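re: ur question from the group chat, yeah i did fold both. here u go
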Amino acid sequence: MDALLLVEQGLNGLQLGVMLFLMAAGLTLVFGIMDLINLAHGTFYMVGAYLTAALVPVLGSFPLALAAAVLLTALLGLVVEAVALRTLYRRDHLDQVLATFGLILFFNELVKIVFGPVPIFLNPPAALAGTVDLFGLKYPAFRLAILAVGIAVAVFLWLLIARTRVGMLIRAGATNREMVMALGVDVRLLFSLVFALGCGLAGLAGAMAGPVLAVQVGMGEQILILTFVVIVIGGIGSIRGALAGALLVGMVDTLGRALLPAAFRLVMDAANASAAGAALASMAIYVLMAVVLAIRPKGLFPAH
């Protein structure tokens, strides 16, 4: 394979990994701290994308629309948590799965009613619409911006969790919820803020994915499966694990889809090679998950 093509696919893998990290960071916090299985997390990814697409023509600026969409998605998360999810914290995981699956159906139909069933194609901001020359490789500037945003969010979350009082309370609440309540901390408010933060990060991922993918109903479910794989590989409740798992999954998935068909063409005809390569590439991340769990059952960087 051409070296430039390999570098391009590697950058695509990093970009996918960053998108998965934005999703997984919020979901792993909610699962690790609140012990809530939220299948509707991908819904906020979809809502963030649709709100960005709707606000760009109104505000006339992609960055402003993105910021507004993230804030509105976080506020929507607060409302959903207060109305639908707060009563599920002490229920078993099956009840949580059923309730959040119902939220998926509800929001999919609501978005279809408001925005219509036809996919929306969102253009990147004018400043990032071109390409950047990376040693002879013309790579889209917007994809590099996604990488930069992901790195900035990772640094922000590390500072928040490891270096602030709020982060200390979040870690303490994940370790011993009853003791934190006994110390006078409003755990309900803490949980609500954590859930809103997770929804805002999912909305940010959707907003950044809008110019790369089509904004369409059900787009959240497609990325949610990969997000759960990331969390399992990285370790439930761990931001560092979410970052490591997301980058691993992004690279394995992207490079597998690029390299495996080419490798099979060495031993079989092109049609069969493409089919076999695509089939194995789609299995690669699950094989990776099985290998990681066989070696480290709690994930690469389990939360302590």
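okk and heres the other one u asked abt
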Amino acid sequence: MNSSYSKGVLSAALAYACWGLFPLFFKLLGHVSPAEVVAHRTVWSLLFVLLVLAVMKRFAWMRDLLGKPRVLAAFALSALLLACNWLVYVWAVQNDHVLDASLGYFINPLVNVALGFLVLHERPRKLQWLAVGLAAAGVLWLTLQAGRLPWVALVLAFSFGFYGLLRKIAPLGALEGLTLETLILTPVAIAALAWWSWQGHGALVAGDGATLALLLLAGPLTAVTLLLFASGARRIPMTTLGLLQYIAPTLQFGLGVWIFHEPFQPARLIGFALIWLALAVYSLESLWTRWRPAPLPA
């Protein structure tokens, strides 16, 4: 296992673990509207990454972007996908749909594998396809059990799937890419925060100290997690990224059922069991392929 791959796996795994525990944090901000939470996440994330860039003295890349409109357009799209994902996720957590959010992130690895196959021409092996099929069956079962179109899950899955693809092929590094994305979103976020404050019901004018501290903390938490994810995504295949993705929804599932006590019909457990079986098949196949002895020369 080479060093770059190992670092990529560790970075992505830590990012997904953080995302899996994020409902605990956003529940504390349930009295702040999702849009305002996202606006604060954007502004404080930008300030955090600019501080990091200042310490590292890495601003030269910004000048090079002026003559690259395609790069700017690509990051504008990734910024839009990121904002959409943030908004729906925070809304889901605050409105007791953590299990729906977990379903979205169970679907997301299937989107990653499909994008890796269709766009990046990655070729999953036979047992990997079996794992994908098992996970797809589990997702289908969960969807049928819900009895309605799982729009929260679908928006989260596809927005983050395409975001991950764009970040994987992006010409900028993890830190620079996140800086550009938040820089694109920040003017809108500042305008929204100014409007809410002028109306007298924004957290900046009506929130207590604990609320403001949590909103401020959302920036570094968001930035560090996204940097870990982007760093991992650039080092490992989309299929491996899809495997690690199951960490976040599994943690969210546990929080939704045992901590937040959201309603969970026993029949839905079949779908989750299929997905967990898929994870086991995928994990064992990947470990066997990576660690099996090389064939002896003839």
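fwiw on the second one: The mean pLDDT is 88. The chain is about 80% helix and 0% strand. idk if thats what u expected
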